[in-house]
Amino acid sequence: MTDLDFENWTCPLPLRDTPSIVMGHGGGGAMSAELVEHLFLPGFGAAAAAAGLGDSAVVTAGGARLAFSTDSYVVKPMFFPGGSIGDLAVNGTVNDLAMSGAMPLYLSTAFILQEGTALSELARIAEAMGAAATAAGVRLVTGDTKVVDRGSGDGVFINTAGIGVVADGVDIAAHRAAPGDAVLISGDIGVHGVAVMSCREGLEFGTAVRSDTAPLHGLVAAMIATGADLHALRDPTRGGVSASLNEIARAARVGVDLVERDLPVPPGVRDACSLLGLDPMQVANEGKLLAFVPAEQAADVLAAMRAHPMGACACRIGTVVPEHPGMVVARTALGGTRVLNLPIGEQLPRIC
Amino acid sequence: MKYLDEFSNPDLARRLLDEIHATATRPWAMMEVCGGQTHSIIRHGIDQLLPEGIEMIHGPGCPVCVTPLEIIDRALAIAAEPGVIFCSFGDMLRVPGSGRDLFGVKSAGADVRVVYSPLDALTIARENPDRQVVFFGIGFETTAPANAMTVYQAKRLGVSNFSLLVSHVLVPPAIAAIMESPRCRVQAFLAAGHVCSVMGTAEYPPLAQKYGVPIVVTGFEPLDILEGIRQTVIQLESGRHELQNAYPRAVRAEGNLPAMAMLRDVFEVTDRTWRGIGMIPDSGWRLSPRYADFDAERRFDVGGISACESPLCRSGEVLQGLLKPNECAAFGKQCTPRNPLGATMVSSEGACAAYYAYRRLDLVQL
Amino acid sequence: MCLAVPGRVLSIAETDGTLMAEVDFGGVHKNVCLQYIPDAAVGEYVVVHVGFAIQRLDEKSALQTLADFERLGILDEEFGDGFTRAAEQAGADQ
Fold first, then answer.
1. Which chain B residues are Cβ-neighbours of C49 within 8 angstroms?
2. How many CB atoms sit inside 10 A of residue B6's CB?
3. How far apart (Å, rounded) are the C-alpha atoms in residues B303 and B295?
4. Which of A289, A309, B84, B319 has the lowest CB atom count within 10 Å?
């Protein structure tokens, strides 16, 4: 072994400064956050909202409180057990609005299509979007279509933006999570991510797990109707429950303590994760929400969630604590502890 | 999953832990060789539940961590060649070479694909006869039969556009190298269960005798690891140093004979450089001359690429159990999973990454 | 190093002269190469790593191990503290 020279130590590997975009920048983890913080916000300058660029914003226009959100959908494959990119494009944006406590009303739809995309596939996607919008009670009111060269896109990309109204008195935001809050989840975790992975090239496996893609604003309305002071809501999509809890813990400067055995991981997800070496806590959901509510109101909120079809399996998974701010800590089934990190980039199957 | 979940039972884990606490009367330092075991130990918080004096030293058994830098650089060079489809296990994509990682090469336009099995890469080769398809064949004895079978099939089926970039490493020479190190503190080994599923246990009794250390073949679920530790502690306390098999449901003394026959046909023993550790004689496998046509290093003429490791990262000491990850000055500061200095921080099985992921709380509170 | 998990063989078929099996991992199904455990039968459990069965899972041994763990606890209750027992066991183990 060579002698070590710590006097002249410099970091030889600043991967942070990759000169070009890598897949991890879109993974919803630490790399995505850094891109916003270090590139977009400085670039936007004074024009950017003071609160940063969250999944959705609540703005006031003409005296009304509006929630406003945009999201792009690039999922591969476009069709997977339990849904398609069309379902996600509607439900994902509806849910981003719902996490502000809004009643979603209108969505835009913009398509970037690769030259050569089969019209039959596009038609299936359009029908899925129509059905999802009808089910969610939102209207698709404006749209755009562009085509890119074969090879510069990859099938179909969809962007949807949405607006909804937020009732007076509703103030749901990540920074409001407070020590003592109960942390609730609306049902089984990791389902969507496993369904998509099961048909991804190179990983294919057979499973009965189907995507949970669904609109959540009805569930949120039922929770608000209890009169409880909902502090924070988040739909744990990319990066899974782990990413969402970390984001809220950081935004509110609080710690989150979880009890691992209380996490609702269905057997199909647990087994697929065992096979691929993944952590169910980092696997995406598309029809679940995390709620931070004052402990004394948790029972009422849980009862309202369980009475709603989207929250029938809702349960409490943890507590907000003043200790270890910004960190999420789980008590393992054996009685040890582990820290749940913000996933870095893309989830990679761990095989060796 | 059956025969997995039962071996995580918290009540039985408690019994095993009580047993270990009752048995251990002195401090002991034992090494779990395999990165999968390291992952499990930290993931379940097992190290926090052991008696104070029982120290788990995390060994060099993460194939991603120990794959030599120059092989990574050769992989990056091959992946960047026009027309190549470069297939790899997911673990390898974020491992830094001298400059960048496979993700970086992919972002520059290379066709890099994650596959579950090397056979998937062979399928891709058969579906793309006009492209060169290369599989990055890394791993220990457990993974080698899969790579061997894939090359064997490629030859048998005449899939001439397929090749393998091989860098296999072997456990027994690494155990010997660790014991030969003058600074070695290891008093016992938990041997890697799945390596022994393939190779059997015959290689270990001579090591246990020569170095006077108990070697206990151990599985990967929490109960398996606790049982491995329990049997090790019993041996240490009674002054014995023998091979024991604490993972009999998946390990037979004779190993997997068809797999071992295939390994003898496809591979031959070679000296191998372990990243962060250095060259260990006869510690690896390369393709035998019979399969030279499928050797990606020859096909792409990258054999001349050599690399020099940064002297700044202390992962070598971590891999040899001489340094705990958090004792490195760069740990958690300049070196994080997001900005890894060395492979032990990159791979989720790497000791540094495992520490960072699961032990940050303790380290903050200390 | 090596993530390998036990699964139950559902069916066996030869593809391109290679023995392959459909293996069930608690509801997750995967096609697995059976060339290294050629005498595995439908219904048996195999240990699978990167798409290859590398060893047969000995169910009897698995159940025995679990039963042994259970017995540790019962001994605990019946025969008192672990120190004595550990000493006895250390002496009597081999």
1. 142-143, 146, 194
2. 16
3. 10
4. A309
**How much is the average pLDDT of A294-313?**
97
Compute CA distances B268 → B175, B261, B282, B342, whole Å: 20, 12, 10, 29
In contact, B104 and A18? CB cutoff 8 Å: yes
Q: What is the 3-state secondary structure (H, E, C) of B216-243?
A: EEECCCHHHHHHHHHHHHHHHHCCCCCE
* Contacts (Cβ under 8 Å, ≥6 apart) of B182: none
Are A352 and B64 a contacting pair, CB within 8 Å?
yes
Chain C residues with CB-CB distance to A206 below 8 A:
22, 28-30
Q: Report the share of chain A in percent with pLDDT over 90.
A: 68
**Alpha-carbon torsion A333, A338, A344, A350, what sign?**
negative
Q: Do A352 and C30 touch (CB under 8 A)?
A: no
Name the least confident of A286-290, A333-337, B122-126, B169-173.
Answer: A333-337
d(CA C62, CA B28): 28
| Token representation of residue B201 | 């246990």
The count of C-alpha atoms lying within 13 angstroms of the C-alpha of B51, restricted to the half-sphere facing its C-beta, is 20
Query: Distance between CA B331 and CA B366 in Å, rounded?
Result: 15
Asked if B135 and B162 count as a contact pair (C-beta separation under 8 A), the reply is yes
Closest CA to A179 of A307, A323, A67, A77: A323
- Tell me which chains share at least 3 CB pairs under 8 Å with chain A: B, C
Contact call for C26 and A267, based on CB within 8 A: yes
State whether C69 and B258 contact (CB < 8 Å).
Answer: no
Residue with tokens 């916000």: A41
Q: Which of A261, A341, A350 sits opposite B91 (nearest CB)?
A: A350
Coil, helix or strand at residue A73: strand
Query: What token pair was written down for B187?
Result: 């008093």
What contacts A268, CB < 8 A, 6 or more positions away?
Answer: A191, A194, A207, A208, A209, C26, C27, C28
Could you tell me which chain A residue has the CA closest to the CA of C47?
A: A275
User: Which chain C residues are closer than 8 Å to A267 by Cβ?
Assistant: 26-27
The secondary structure of C13-41, three-state, reads EEECCEEEEEEEECCEEEEEECCCCCCCC
**Which residues of chain C have a pLDDT value below 50?**
1, 78-94
Per CB-CB distance under 8 Å, the chain A contacts of B278 are 1
pLDDT beyond 60 at A196: yes
Q: What is the mean pLDDT of chain A?
A: 88
Give exposure, B127-140, as e/b (b: 16+ Cβ within 10 Å). eeeeebbbbbbbbb
- Give, rounded to a whole angstrom, the gap between the first and last alpha carbons of chain A: 27
User: Residue C85's Cα: distance from chain center in Å?
Assistant: 28
Give the B window 201-220 contacts with C, CB below 8 Å: 220
- Model confidence band, residue A18 (pLDDT cutoffs 50, 70, 90): low
When pLDDT is averaged across residues A108-125 and rounded to a whole number, the result is 93
Nearest residue in chain B measured CA to CA from C16: B157
For chain B, residues with pLDDT lower than 50 are: 363-366
Please answer yes or no on whether C76 and B117 come within 8 Å at the CB atom: no
* pTM of model > 0.90: no
Size of chain B, expressed as the number of residues it contains = 366
Per CB-CB distance under 8 Å, the chain A contacts of C22 are 206
Note whether C29 contacts A351, CB cutoff 8 Å.
no
Question: Which subunits have 3 or more CB–CB pairs within 8 Å of chain B?
Answer: A, C
Give me the residue from B1, B157, B192 closest to C26, CB to CB. Answer: B1
Q: Is C41 on the interface with A (CB under 8 A)?
A: no
Q: Are strands B215-218 and B243-245 parallel, antiparallel or unpaired?
A: parallel
B159-172 pLDDT, tens digit per residue, is 999 999 999 999 99
